[in-house]
Amino acid sequence: xxxxxxxxxxxxxxxxxxxxxxxxxxxxxxxxxxxxxxxxxxxxxxxxxxxxxxxxxxxxxxxxxxxxxxxxxxxxxxxxxxxxxxxxxxxxxxxxxxxxxxxxxxxxxxxxxxxxxxxxxxxxxxxxxxxxxxxxxxxxxxxxxxxxxxxxxxxxxxxxxxxxxxxxxxxxxxxxxxxxxxxxxxxxxxxxxxxxxxxxxxxxxxxxxxxxxxxxxxxxxxxxxxxxxxxxxxxxxxxxxxxxxxxxxxxxxxxxxxxxxxxxxxxxxxxxxxxxxxxxxxxxxxxxxxxxxxxxxxxxxxxxxxxxxxxxxxxxxxxxxxxxxxxxxxxxxxxxxxxxxxxxxxxxxxxxxxxxxxxxxxxxxxxxxxxxxxxxxxxxxxxxxxxxxxxxxxxxxxxxxxxxxxxxxxxxxxxxxxxxxxxxxxxxxxxxxxxxxxxxxxxxxxxxxxxxxxxxxxxxxxxxxxxxxxxxxxxxxxxxxxxxxxxxxxxxxxxxxxxxxxxxxxxxxxxxxxxxxxxxxxxxxxxxxxxxxxxxxxxxxxxxxxxxxxxxxxxxxxxxxxxxxxxxxxxxxxxxxxxxxxxxxxxxxxxxxxxxxxxxxxxxxxxxxxxxxxxxxxxxxxxxxxxxxxxxxxxxxxxxxxxxxxxxxxxxxxxxxxxxxxxxxxxxxxxxxxxxxxxxxxxxxxxxxxxxxxxxxxxxxxxxxxxxxxxxxxxxxxxxxxxxxxxxxxxxxxxxxxxxxxxxxxxxxxxxxxxxxxxxxxxxxxxxxxxxxxxxxxxxxxxxxxxxxxxxxxxxxxxxxxxxxxxxxxxxxxxxxx
Length: 818
Prior knowledge:
Blueprint: H1 5-17, H2 25-45, H3 61-65, H4 73-89, H5 100-103, H6 107-120, H7 137-153, H8 164-173, E1 186-189, H9 196-204, E2 210-215, H10 218-230, E3 237-240, E4 259-264, H11 299-309, E5 310-321, H12 330-341, E6 344-349, E7 362-368, E8 377-382, E9 388-390, E10 393-395, H13 398-410, E11 418-422, H14 423-428, H15 450-455, E12 458-459, H16 460-464, H17 467-472, H18 474-480, E13 481-485, E14 488-491, H19 498-503, H20 506-531, H21 539-553, H22 562-587, E15 594-601, E16 607-616, H23 622-629, H24 631-657, H25 673-684, H26 691-696, H27 705-740, H28 746-788, H29 792-812
Parallel strand pairs: 1-2, 1-4, 2-3, 4-5, 6-8
Antiparallel strand pairs: 5-7, 6-7, 8-11, 9-10, 12-14, 13-14, 15-16
Helix pairs in contact: 1-6, 1-7, 2-7, 2-10, 8-9, 8-13, 13-22, 20-21, 20-28, 21-22, 22-28, 23-24, 23-27, 24-27, 25-27
């Protein structure tokens, strides 16, 4: 059976544990990723004639396995695996597997490398069989590892990775997905890092394009080359060197090579950008028409390199700190010249703390040379508030990405989010592009109404602000509010009944029913599509089409936000549905059970104990089988569980009622069967409760100690018997469910997975949006009612009355309050 995508990731990440020790994440990433690379290319290309990657004889992963446990394991890997592979495929800057400063020496390095190799020996990690055509499982695993490495590396060493979410945005807004691309279409990243951004752009093209990248750091450029291969782009050209000082992609006449698309996430505010270059005499004339960037701020140096590297019809995007939008002096001149030439198509402000190298907010500057001469403005988006917390970083959600891309590509002007800013307006602001100057994204302040506080009454303006609700339920407003005086209203129902008045109002009930019907329509349409999935399907295509259909289905619907609905589906995809689709892509609709074996190993990594923890099925969990085929047995178990809970409650109540200093349980250090029976024997000579004593205990608090202990012991014995019966019933149900799997037909499995599992979970998530809508209205109405329910005069009268009462109490106590 194919390995689940999530298990593949966690399995590879566990390999990092073998290397951590005192080694920095930016170092041990090299070893883990190289092992991933060698395992993958060995599985896919070993023995394959004319393969894009050459696996020399004796240099495959299987050959590496033979070195496990040998005292010279590191040296053998270097000489017999790394060197032949690197030489045959022109790979450089591979890590040293025999470096004692990083891997330890003696037995330490032997155990560490042996255990690391063992991680990749897992039979489920057969990469030649676990990659669905069209879905880059291994490339995604690489991205997963890179994200984790960047997270652990901290601010100083996280530069080798651009968050995939930001890369996706850039790839989708530069126009490559709408272009007629061919193999002659070129994409370039002058600061490519590990290559993730470059690859994302390539993935958006309809046809295979040619990728170029240059990276200053030697080790990171090596990672980029491997990343290209893992993403099925073995012909991508990655060069190592300082792009600004020595650009390596040049034409025959020595000038910069130009490209159709250029993207980059260069180092923010690089203070050493001019090392090795004379900006005033740049042979590539990158700064001639715009101005020379400041010595200690290299942001515009990279942006101008991008502009110069674009063809006359080229398009690009660059991630830069917000400072480039408003800093003055030399940068202001460069900015003005870029704007006047019409090169800046758009600016997207991103949330703070997205990137691993810094916590400052950044922006995406979109360049378009092709339409520069007709450009009359710059399209701006303030997306700074759309994110989710993820550990100590912020992360863009799928809905945030989709919203940015939709708004930018369709030039949608959304209040407090986006607008087209004319060049004339920018000139009036002295070419300052700071987004808050043009987009006020601040949420409106909830203003306190002074007259409302003085005289009472809810301001009509606050109720009018809830107009989207009244558009859907026009009579609901009259139900909830009544007239007070001009401009003010009173609550027409009690505060306690606000919720029921909303939930049970015919218009709101009708709205909820319409939303349920809306989902049912999409669900019915999706059932057959999902049931038609076959082995070798493309999971990424599946979710792409499904999610876009759902988003379109909920567009422009009242009260409900389509991107929130979209996010519910994408969240479920990430947690559950993605793994299921990859299982189906690999094995088809097979519901195979397997045992859960807990393995305990000793310090040497040898298995010393295996414990059977039961069984499971990934595609069709046991609970789905129980719910559909054995509901009666499950209901009986639920009744037994309820009875057990009731018994436990009775015992607890008895202990609390008679647990005082003179209570029946006061002589016991701990209330349990052994202690209660011993106490009973001590006072009666008989450790067994008499049947008549239970009736005697009904006398209540005055019941004798003997009777109370007998009752507790009766309940404890009943609890034991019920637990035994419950365990037997659960075992019987488990056996019934286990026996059902071999009897399932493919049609039955599809029904269980698509209807009972996927669509039921998605329905519950989307229907929660209805609860959110009603709760938001309920909370706001109650808040307004409470805010203005006590006018100042009434509050003052109440204070005076309370003050008078307090003074009277003080006088009776002999105190005079002056």
